Amino acid sequence: MSQNPTKHTKVLIIGSGPAGYTAAVYAARAMLNPILVYGSEPGGQLTTTTDVENFPGFADVIQGPWLMDQMKEQAKAVGTEMIEDHISSVNLKSKPFEAIGDSGQKYTADSVIISTGAQARWLNIKSEQEFRGFGVSACATCDGFFFKEKEVAVVGGGNAAVEEAMFLTKFASKVKLIHRRDALRAEKMLQKKLMENKKIEIIWDTVVEDVIGDKDPKNVKGVKVKNLKTNKINEIKLDGIFIAIGHDPATQLFKDQLKMDKEGYLITKPDSTETNIPGVYAAGDVKDKTFRQAVTAAGMGCMAALEAEKFLSH
Length: 314
Hints:
Helix content is 24%, strand content 30%. The chain is built from 7 helices and 19 strands. Strands 1, 2, 5, 6, 7, 8 and 19 form a 7-stranded mixed sheet that branches. The chain has a 5-stranded parallel sheet with strand order 10-17-11-12-13, covered by helices on one side. The chain has a 3-stranded antiparallel sheet with strand order 14-15-16. A hairpin with a 2-residue loop joins strand 14 and strand 15. It is elongated and about 60 Å long. The two termini are 39 Å apart.
């Protein structure tokens, strides 16, 4: 295979989704001719979210994949070069910065915006994936609304699980928190609130073995659980199940080059998307484990592009 000549750009955006696409729109409009490299799942987590009701500007329910398509087309229309490639290594010590794709293509850039996102961790049972979007979700703030007066369960024991369980009590008639251990990892204040909430029941020492539901129309009817102390199998009737066992940011690529927290999220300066390397910015779920919303990711993409523009003009 003949080597493609190196592609140089003022702004290289790694990863698509609300952060990457918004960064691209702003960078392109600033005449920076950005290159956006997207992997095998363009649009990120939103492409697995069907009904989106909380993105500002749309009074009617919109579809996640459609929204991502629109953002992509908008970024293209204003002059972003889109390339499907998987960046396999980066060198942020060199000037200009360097990235190499699986395709063998070498990219050099004066600034880099990282918007590689995060993935929810799943239980990895077949039935869970089958009913994803049909009663199985990894985002209570996205989908809680659809479970008014219904019974749901949250799986997990950390802060996220406890917060999701509490949030769901606004809609659901009953929330069961299923945790594999006999104590929660969540912070004490949160645990206290949880225990005081009459709508929540905690099921200890228990793992989900299977999601049960109807095939046509697809919907969740319950879960099969196993008590780890007694090995007893039970069925719990439910209308929905929320998996809250954490997210993994896609930051493997930047290990030992960029500062990250112990969970692997990139660390940026306060009120900024700048990482510890000037000219390298991080936007969206790759650095945000607090809000994780499409609109906040888009906001950070805008910030990153404006910061990159300022950096390049000096």
